[in-house]
Amino acid sequence: MPERINKKQFGQEIKKIRDQHSYSLRQVSYQSKTESESAISPSYWSLIERGERNIPKPDTLKRMAHGLRVPANIVLSLAGYQETTENKIIENLGEITPFDNEETIAIPVVGTIKCGPDGLALSDQTGYEPVQKSEIGDPKDYFWLKTKGDSMIGDGIFDGDSALIRKDVEIENGKIYAVIIDGEEGTLKHVTKKDNSIVLTASNPSYQPRIFVGSDMNEIFIAGRLIQTKRTF
């Protein structure tokens, strides 16, 4: 379990997320309401941000995440309940270790990615794979993932292939990305993003597209864009 922070630090982090989204206290309060739970009042939210209340229990933390429009695991992680996949990606990158020549560099393998409907997003760093320096930019922007499953065989991506991922912010519709769903499930899929939806499409016709609409879009974290794959025989 990740190390817990104190209530003042937690409040500062929550306020930082709210400020990044330019949400008012009244707005996050309104957005925290769910079908089964009432809204978190602006006054209580303010007390949390000022560190004048204890860190809430998980159920309330999930409502706060809903109000902030971020995946629940991010807020739970801040409170020390679980580690986010986003953090795992960053922590597992480690140092870039160059090979003994000027042409290649070793990029860390940070875990596994499931090319299918289920599976753990990332595991611990498992080693390194080489890349030609001329083919990439800043090495720290890249990582390798091992694929599993058959959902992308139409693109020539098979179980056990190594997928080189470049961390991206901008999405180019139709390209293949490493996608984290609700902080847990990792998958390679073609991504199409519109104003109010994200569609994840496999290249194996046995798998139906997955469509995330409205607030469900907050469950999606784009880890990066697929640059290349390679196979070891």
Automatic annotation (TrEMBL):
<protein>
    <recommendedName>
        <fullName>HTH cro/C1-type domain-containing protein</fullName>
    </recommendedName>
</protein>
<dbReference type="Pfam" id="PF00717">
    <property type="entry name" value="Peptidase_S24"/>
</dbReference>
<dbReference type="GO" id="GO:0003677">
    <property type="term" value="F:DNA binding"/>
</dbReference>
<feature type="domain" description="HTH cro/C1-type">
    <location>
        <begin position="14"/>
        <end position="75"/>
    </location>
</feature>
<dbReference type="InterPro" id="IPR001387">
    <property type="entry name" value="Cro/C1-type_HTH"/>
</dbReference>
<dbReference type="InterPro" id="IPR036286">
    <property type="entry name" value="LexA/Signal_pep-like_sf"/>
</dbReference>
<dbReference type="InterPro" id="IPR015927">
    <property type="entry name" value="Peptidase_S24_S26A/B/C"/>
</dbReference>
<dbReference type="InterPro" id="IPR010982">
    <property type="entry name" value="Lambda_DNA-bd_dom_sf"/>
</dbReference>
<dbReference type="Pfam" id="PF13560">
    <property type="entry name" value="HTH_31"/>
</dbReference>
<dbReference type="InterPro" id="IPR039418">
    <property type="entry name" value="LexA-like"/>
</dbReference>
<dbReference type="InterPro" id="IPR050077">
    <property type="entry name" value="LexA_repressor"/>
</dbReference>
